[in-house]
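1st attempt posting a full record on here, be nice pls
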Amino acid sequence: MLLLVPFFDTLKHWFREMLFWLFDLLMSVLEQIPAPEWFDDVGGSLAGITPEVAYFVGPMQIEYGISIILSAYLIRFIIRRIPIIG
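the predicted structure (as tokens):
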């Protein structure tokens, strides 16, 4: 039984290294996908807000929240296109 412990530790190490390698490969593929043009202009669309509304937009960081939501929808769209996962 003691002889199997190093074997399973090695297998666990190889499996972990393989997962890290696959994750790095996936991230390098996703980094090559260009972002749409409208995605970069989300902050510019909030420039026409009146000062009364801007008083609440500043502390709540609406611009930051909208960019997070849009990026989450984009990631969900990309993941659904992967045949094994989606």
